C-alpha cells in the first residue's frame, strides 16, 4: 500500500488539497495522515541530478497500546486517557521533502529532528543526492508559533483526578527582565509549555538567588516576587499560574531557584513513540507522489539530531525505541552531533530543554550514567549500563556517527563517553560507532561579541566536516563502506588531559582569563521513585548531591597557540589565524569566572612581530607564520587537499572553504 499524496493542477501551479489517508494496518501505530499543504520546494528549484522536490506538510495521528512492553516504559502511559479501544493517542506535525521523480531518489529516508520545534532548512548537498527528508515533531511541550512543529500529547491523571508534585526550576538571564515562564529555563525561554502552579499564594515557598552554583542560596522576600505577568503592567502584575515576576527584575549576575507545586504532567515520552512509529510507517509503505507508477520505496533510514536532539537520540536508543512493534529495526543509521548526555523527556513533569551546564541548571536530571555507548560498569555510581544495551539484546542497533565540538568536552563531559568515569583509562567503543571531534570549534559556530564574556565567539566552521561525515554514514548504511576511523583525543594518544594549568598548558595570552574549569557533574540522588539508569520516573526535588562521588572530566590537549590536538583539524586549525576555543569564562556581573554557556572564543594572532612583542603575546604573529599572502593561500589549498584524502571534506566543498579562508585573512601582501 502506498501513501497517496494527491495534487490538483491548474495552469501549471500545484494547489494544496486537504487529504485524509487512513491506515488500517495493525502494526504501524500511525492511524492516519492528514496533509494540509503541498507545494514545490523552493519554487521548483532543481537540486543537481535529483531535480526538483515537493514539500508536503501535515499531521500524523498516532496511538499506542499502553500494555505493550515496548510502550509501557513511557512514563505515566498507564495514567493517560485512552480512546474507546484503550489506546493512548497523540498528534505530530511533520514536513516531508520528496524528489518529484521517484527515479531521482536514492531511497534514503533522512529524519532530521526538529530542535525545540524548529525544522530549519534541508542541506542542499543532501537533496542533490536524492534524500527523502522528514521533520517530525517529538516535543510535546513546544508552543505553537513562528513556524515551530508541535506535538499534542495527553495529560496524565490519577483515575481522572489532577496530579500534582513538587517541581524545581532555575532562571538565568542575559539581560534584566521582570517576567519569565514559570517552569521553562534558560534554554527554553518563552516557546515552551510551563506546568501550572497549584496555588498563586507564594507564602510557603522560597525563591532564592546565588552567583555561583555552589554558593549559599539567598532567599528573596516573598513580597518581592509573585506568580504573575508584568510584561504590560507594573509589579505585582496580572496573576498568572504559568509566569513568575520579580519586583526589581531578574539580574544576569544570579541563578534563581524555586521549588513549587506543579500540576497536570504531560506524557512527553510519547515523543519517542512518535518518531519510532512515523519512521516505521514510512519505511513499510511506499510514498506515492502522484500515481501508482511514481512511488518512492524506502531502502534505508537515518536519523539526525543536533544538540538537544542528539541527546534525544541517545535516550531513544537507551530506552529501546529503535525496535518497532514488529520487532524490526527502525533506524539503520544515526548522525548524532554535539550531544553527549540523555534528555529528561521520560520523567513526570519532564522538561527536555534543560541544560545541565556548569553554571546553568547544573543539578538538572540529565548528567547521569550511563555515559558510554556499550554496556559497562560505571565505577563512580557502581551501576552498569550503556546507551546501546537494549538494542544489542534485540539486534536493532544502528550504525552511529557521533560528532563533537570542543564545547562538549568542557560543558557536557564528552570524555566520559569513552573513558573510565574516574578518568584513569580509555574505554573501547563498539564497532558500529564512530566518534569524531572537530578541533577548535564551539557548540554552534557564531561571530559576535558575547555580552556574557566580552570576547568574540568562535566561528570556526563545522558544517563542511559534518557534511562529509554524513555522506560517509550514507555509504556505510547503503553500501557497507566503512567511514574513516574514529578521530578523537584519548589518554593513549596523549591528547586527553586534565583541565588544570599543569595538564592543559594554556598559553599565557594577555587579557584571557583561564581557570581550568570544567563541568564536573556530581552524582545525584532523585529519590526512590526515580530510575537514574532509565532516566525515568518521579523526581524528588531538590536532588541529594552525593559529595564524595565526583566524575573526572578530561579535555583535549592544546599546542603552543592554544589550539586543540587529537581530533579532526580543519583548515582553520591547520592554517590558523588565531586561537579557537570551545570554552569561555563569564565576566563581572554575569556570574564571573563560570563557564559561559555553550560559547567559545576566537582570539586572533597579532599582525606583526612588533605588535605581539609589545602586547606580550607568546603566539607567533601572522607575518611570522606566513611570509606572504601567496604562502598562506598555498597552505590553505594543501590543507583542503589533505582533508579530502582523509574523508573529512567533500571535493565540492574545497573551493568554497579555500575562498572562505582567503576572505578571512586580514593581511594582503
TrEMBL record:
InterPro entries: Abhydrolase_dom (IPR045394). Residues 248-654 form the Alpha/beta hydrolase domain. Pfam families: Abhydrolase_10. This is Alpha/beta hydrolase domain-containing protein.
